[in-house]
Amino acid sequence: MSHNWYATSIDKIEKQLETNREEGLGTREIDERQATYGKNELPVKEKKPEWLKFISHFNDVLIYILLIAAVITLILGHYIDTVVIVLVAVINALIGYMQESKAEKALEGIKNMLSLHATVIREGKKHDIEALDLVPGDVVALRAGDKVPADVRLVEADHLKVEEASLTGESTSVKKQTSVLEDDTVLGDRTNMLFSGTAISQGSGLGIVVATGEETEIGQINQSMQEVEEIKTPLLKQTDDFGKMISIVIVALAAILFVFGIFFHSYEWQELLLAVIGLMVAAIPEGLPAILSIILALGVQTMADKKAIMRTLPSVETLGAVTVICSDKTGTLTKNEMTVRAVVTPDKQYDVTGTGYEPSGAIMHDGEKVNVKVDQPLKAFLTAVKTVNDSDVIEKDDQWIVQGEPTEGCLVTLAEKANQHIKKLTMKSKIPFDSSYKYMAALVEEDDQKKIYLKGAPDRVFDMAGLAEGSDERHYWEKQMKRLTQQGERIIAAAVKHVDQSYTSIDHEDVETGMTILGLAGIIDPPRDEAIEAIKACKRAGITVKMITGDHKDTALAIAKQMNLTDRDRVVEGRELDQMSDEQRRKVVNEVDVFARTSPNNKLQLVEALQYNGEISAMTGDGVNDAPALKRADIGIAMGIKGTEVAKEASEMVLVDDNFNTIVNAVREGRRVYDNLKKTILFILPTNGAEAFLVMAALILGIAMPLTAVQILYVNMVTAVTVSLALAFEPIERGTMERPPRKSTEQLLSPYYMFRIIFVSLLIGGSILYLHPHWVEQYGLENVNTITLHALVFAQLFHMFNVRNERHFSLNRDFFKNKAAFIVTAILIALQLIVTYVPFFQVALGLEPISFGEWYYPVVIGLLVFVVVELEKLVTHRLFKRK
């Protein structure tokens, strides 16, 4: 049911929905509509069963090849080989399954925002019913503290204010009214509508339900989240591409060598098939998915310790590639706590220190604290704003909170910052605030004199004070007002009028004239200090920060300038974005840093435009309105304290402390993790390369296989799960946060990496192949496989120390910094001794116990690899420096 209800009169709505504001719906109509529209709830997405989640981790082309190899060994009767190959595949799937993020709960989060009960008028009587049973056309009554149960078009509004921050991003409660609005009115300005999931903060109202369940604004967000296409992270894209590429190469090579062996060496086909399987197993880096998951999981743990909870593993490395952070303003860059920053009286300007509702800070003039005992104009102003006030601030759980309106709350805090107690006078009569006349007034008695104190919109108060256009006095106040608004501050004016002692009540006529202006207060939702520092750090790291907010453009730009987020003056509003083509949005998103009055769809449009332009985008937010963009962004970042459950469940990362600076720490960790992932790949692949080289050489030269398929699998898994694990703990390299983000197109396997992998593969494989005839002659064929296995393992162990520092000398002052490297070295040596001398493992892997003298060769080959690779790094580094 899509309709611009806010632009339609009540009478027309009653006709269209066949309802009546006094009587409501009848029983028959309710039954019919429940059958037509269903329950007032959001549809639940069917969850993937646990077994299917586990099976999905076998959905990898490299695992397919491994499983085919297992089937072939089973057919050929090599059951130990089959069991070991299948076991490796299952272990990989288990690791992936265990590290998988929790099931998607965003839809439940939105669903839980719907209120449980609603007060309706049916057949002329009030009923308290479950919100699930509401239908379009129902007449609902609402009061302060209620959660809005559906989308409602207001019929009556009595001082009604609604907290919509979670839906629109507005930091203040929205005053509601019943008048018809224009067709192009944006979501945040639809003041005659109440939206499902928002809360009544003040007053009461009556309205007609116009949308329920998935047809509500929250329902539309829910639907757009289902429709949002989740994108793959750079790491997943590259590992997928690498897997496909290597699988094609492996299968092609295996087929060629099988044909070669049949025609040129007259191998028995079963023997040749086993050799080809050995080649396939050797070339597949089956340990790589497991170690990548473990490294990412360790990154997740480190980030959790630093107050950033990652909900998906690959998102850790994506953080290191982020080029743009799209941030909501309210509660993310700002504190979502209204604060008076400045006060102006007829002859002075004051600065106010302290932020939030905590009454700590002072009122300053020319750098000194003001004594209100001698500054009577300031005292009168503070008395006015504290007295004409229905709100209060209290301390709860070591935190100061406002009871009532945030704007009024900050005025109470202002009065409490005075150096002596400001008395809140008893209101003998009052005129409540209403947006139609934009002020609140109260009749009080002070020092045996009755007076009317008033606060409200400055332009309205200026007229009440009789300030003529162009007069010196009006010019003074307008100049001060302009100065404050340019700083992003909202202005509240206060005035007083002395009246006769006979007054017992007041009305609008009593304040229309004769008021005397006491002063102005400049109010702001202050930026977080740590967010300002975080933005500086982002700029140093080459990351752009963009503000996407539901607030007004002047306020948004002032805050952005104050935080050094932008040096541009252009601000684009949501309605402008709606009128743009995709191409225009893609252009404007690069030219503008501040977007105001945005709708949920605008945020999604901007994230998509950034991604089209090749940016890796992060989106921070805390409200329901942020959820679709959080899900679509490469990294969705939700606030943990003030964030809604919807935002948290739609995101990849949750900031536990709502501290923008935590994002910078997370980016730093993301870059470290990515660097260590690259080092891990640089370490693991030469193992596969050396094994594949040995198997191919044996087939081409017609010599005995130096390793069986099971032995190859053992080497692959033991080096991946033990030695390479040490690289996950490598500390961040110097200057990492001063370099620009890596390009999304940057390949894990750069030309240098390809050279290095081939070079080390040939170095390890060539050394073993060169010594192979000598080993066969001296120790016999039965011991050669064992020596070869140890030579491969020790070569990789020494190579791990090469890889710890990619291009510089490894034996530096940080050599002993990573204790994990030495722990895994000890574990690996112990494992090698166990598989060599414990009978069960000897049989399982087909190894023989060797003498002390035979260990000489593995150790020498390992040392040779370390020295040669260090020399290669030295030469290569000098060549790069020359270029």
TrEMBL record:
Keyword Translocase belongs to the record: yes
Residue stretches spanning the membrane: 62-95, 245-267, 273-300, 681-705, 711-732, 753-772, 784-801, 821-843, 855-875
GO biological process: intracellular potassium ion homeostasis; intracellular sodium ion homeostasis; potassium ion import across plasma membrane; proton transmembrane transport; sodium ion export across plasma membrane
Keyword Glycosyltransferase: no
Principal place of residence: membrane
Enzyme class: translocase
Listed name of the protein: P-type Ca(2+) transporter
Pfam assignment, any one: Cation_ATPase_N
GO molecular function: ATP binding; ATP hydrolysis activity; metal ion binding; P-type calcium transporter activity; P-type sodium:potassium-exchanging transporter activity
Family (UniProt): Belongs to the cation transport ATPase (P-type) (TC 3.A.3) family. Type IIA subfamily.
EC id: 7.2.2.10
Catalysis performed (reactions): Ca(2+)(in) + ATP + H2O = Ca(2+)(out) + ADP + phosphate + H(+)
Origin superkingdom: Bacteria
